[in-house]
Structures are given as structure tokens and as C-alpha cells.
Design goal:
binds shikimate-3-phosphate, 5-stranded parallel β-sheet
Length: 179
């Protein structure tokens, strides 16, 4: 059981492993998992591709910001953010009001492998190739890195290993702050 008096926000590209890692932190360490896309889809009564199609991306992005504000009242939750959430400065500021931001990374080839069988990501439909993924990833890299309190590379590691490394790095950071 891990108890944090703040929330952990998992950010990073689609397919970086945010949902798998939050599932593992919830199962193995007893944290509350919040899947932002899932909460939004449930409230809207439609899937993410349909929200993009019927309401537009701007509308979806606003819902993300509102949800992040709502989550501030919680503690010890691990929040799997949609891949675009950390692209807005305001969203990152909302995350940091009661949370630490963890960036998960993987190379474009690995990302493609992880996302290729899903149609749930409107931004990648019709673009499932390494070139497109590398381009979008490069365009996002700077903001992701600026937002992150810690970075965990997921390449070649099991989900359990990633969780262990993540908690260790967070603990180191918490210990340093207490000095
Ligand atoms: C998006 C990532 C998706 C989802 C939406 C937009 C993005 O979430 O929020 O399709 O802009 O990167 P995942 O990162 O969980 O796939």
C-alpha cells in the first residue's frame, strides 16, 4: 500500500503505457486509478472518437481541463491523462496544484506497435505509421518534458518494473523536499 498526500499524473504520448501503469499502481499498490478518457466518455455518453467528431477537439479539451480541476480535491489517485492533456499550460498548472507529473516515454516504433490495433484514437486514425508518430511526438516533446517532475522510459521494461521505478523516483523527490 502506498499513500501519497498528492495525486500522480501520468502524461506522455498515446501508447506510452499510461493506462497500463495506472492499472498496475491501483492493483499492486492500492492507489485509486482515474482514467480521464474513460470518465469523459462515460459522462458524455459516447466514445472519444465520437466526441471529436460530433463536438470537436476544442470541446473535448475543455472537458479535460474541467476534470483536472475537479481532481484537485482528491489525494493518492493515479491519473492516466489523455496524451494531449499536458499540451496546455493551464492543464499542467492544474495538475501541479495537488500533484506530481510523471512523463512516460517510448520510441515511435514501440508506440506504433502498441496502438496499431486500436481505433479509439482519432488523432492517429489513418496515420498509423512511424513517420507520422515521430513527427507528432517531436512536436510535443518540449512541452511534455517541461511539464514533467520525473521521466520514466518504458522501453524494454515490464509494467511492474516501470511502476517500481516510478515510485522509487517519486520517493527520492519527496525525500529531497523534506530535507
Ligand atoms: C489524445 C490522446 C488520447 C485521447 C484523445 C487525444 C492526444 O488518449 O485523449 O484521443 O491528443 O494525444 P491516450 O493518450 O490515452 O491514447
Amino acid at each position: 500500500m502506498v499513500m501519497k498526500n498528492y495525486n500522480i499524473f501520468l502524461i506522455g504520448f498515446m501508447g506510452a503505457g499510461k493506462s497500463s501503469v495506472s492499472g498496475c499502481l491501483s492493483r499492486e499498490y492500492g492507489m485509486d486509478a482515474v482514467e480521464m478518457d474513460e470518465v469523459i466518455a462515460k459522462r458524455e455518453g459516447m466514445g472519444i472518437p465520437e466526441i471529436f467528431e460530433k463536438r470537436g477537439e476544442e470541446y473535448f479539451r475543455r472537458l479535460e481541463t474541467e476534470l483536472l480541476i475537479e481532481i484537485q480535491s482528491r489525494n493518492n489517485a493515479v491519473v492516466s491523462c489523455g496524451g494531449g492533456a499536458a499540451m496546455r499550460e493551464q492543464n499542467v498548472a492544474e495538475m501541479k496544484k495537488n500533484g506530481k507529473v510523471v512523463l512516460l516515454t517510448a520510441c515511435p516504433e514501440t508506440i506504433l506497435n502498441r496502438v496499431k490495433d486500436s481505433d479509439e484514437r482519432p488523432l492517429l486514425n489513418g496515420h498509423k505509421d512511424v513517420k507520422y508518430i515521430s513527427g507528432l511526438m517531436e512536436a510535443r516533446r518540449e512541452r511534455y518534458e517541461a511539464a514533467a517532475d520525473i521521466v520514466v522510459d518504458t522501453e524494454g521494461k515490464s509494467v511492474s518494473q516501470i511502476c517500481g521505478e516510478l515510485l522509487e523516483k517519486l520517493q527520492e523527490m519527496d525525500d529531497r523536499k523534506e530535507l
